[in-house]
Specification:
This protein has 277 residues and is of the alpha/beta class. The chain folds into two domains: 162 residues, Rossmann fold (3-Layer(aba) Sandwich); 106 residues, DNA polymerase, domain 1 (Orthogonal Bundle). The chain contains twelve helices and seven strands. A seven-stranded mixed beta sheet has the order 3-2-1-4-5-7-6, with helices on both faces. Helix 6 packs across helix 7. It is globular, with a radius of gyration of 20 Å. Bound molecules: S-adenosylmethionine. The site of S-adenosylmethionine has 20 residues, from helix 1 and strand 2. S-adenosylmethionine binds next to helix 1 and strand 2.
Length: 277
């Protein structure tokens, strides 16, 4: 079983317990600290656990390096974890003031503060529109460029403030989410190259899976979900996959009341039906 996003090992622990001594769990993550926690949590499992500090876009090469041929299951629980959202070292949250960073993988060169500092107005607007799907992207970009002349936008609080000022009353009226949500989503996607990494994972999956093996992806916004949906559909048309979830599975009301952050989650599952790669 490949856990492409092992985090602190919550999912892997449950899978590992079900697998028993013959099983192997291979966990990927770009956050080393989370992996240390996962290692601790998975210690008591009877199955073999291999942790790989690597981007899941490298799944095929990494499994080859481990000498593993054919996975029965790939799970990807995309995005960032609750501990990462709260930790100031990642600079992801607009609910608290923290250094504006957003790099989940510390090997990445360009932080969110760099993007906000150096990108020209049009490119900023395009980024917020493309990755945040915010129709007020031009106005937000204009406010950012004006504000950064007066003071450096180096914290999440300052950026959230600028976005709120840009949206004024429109921000409040248009939806129940915080006005800065879409801008922050856009920056996080850009900093961590999230969509390209997901594409690479989806493209590698048929090569990595055994016949009958399954891939399950939990996504948290429409840009990710669309990539998963169209990838599964394309593979179905090419007789590579059978789609298990005709419609994505979404959390129940009960689950949302217990964990608000799962409210936008969508789970899609496909099974490889073709032979070979
Ligand atoms: C939602 S959390 C997963 C939580 C995990 N399922 C658990 O039960 O603890 C997503 C994790 O994926 C990691 N991640 C995000 N993008 C990644 C990528 N491209 N490659 C590897 N890990 C990634 C993040 O660092 C984070 O730990």
């Amino acid at each position: 079983m490949v856990d492409a996003t092992i985090g602190q090992g919550g999912h892997s622990y449950l899978f590992g317990r079900a697998l028993g001594p013959q099983g192997v769990v291979i966990g990927f993550d770009v956050d080393e600290k989370a992996m240390e926690k996962a290692e601790e949590r998975l210690k008591t499992l009877k199955c073999r656990v291999i942790l790989v500090h690597s981007n899941f876009s490298q799944i095929a090469d990494e499994l080859n390096n481990q000498g593993i041929k054919g996975a029965d299951f790939i799970l990807a629980d995309l995005g960032v974890s609750s501990p990462q959202l709260g930790a100031s070292e990642f600079g992801l949250s607009f609910l608290e003031d923290m250094p504006l960073d957003m790099r989940i993988d510390k090997r990445i060169q360009r932080s969110a503060a760099d993007i906000i500092k150096y990108l020209d107005e049009k490119s900023l607007a395009d980024l917020i529109y493309q990755y945040g799907e915010d129709r007020a992207s031009r106005r937000i970009a204009r406010f950012i460029v004006q504000s950064r002349k007066d003071f450096p936008i180096t914290t999440t609080g300052r950026l959230a403030n600028v976005v709120c000022r840009a949206l004024g009353n429109r921000g409040k009226g248009r939806s129940r989410i915080h006005p800065a949500t879409r801008t922050f989503q856009a920056l996080r996607i850009a900093v961590n190259d999230e969509l390209e990494n997901l594409k690479a994972l989806l493209d590698s999956a048929p090569e990595v899976l055994k016949r009958g093996g399954r891939i399950a992806v939990i996504s948290f916004h429409s840009l990710e979900d669309r990539l998963v949906k169209y990838n599964f559909r394309k593979n179905k048309e090419e007789n590579v996959y059978e789609i298990i979830t005709k419609k994505p599975l979404i959390p129940t009301r009960q689950e949302i009341s217990e964990n608000r952050r799962c409210r936008s989650a969508k789970l899609r599952i496909a099974r490889k039906i073709s032979e070979g790669d």
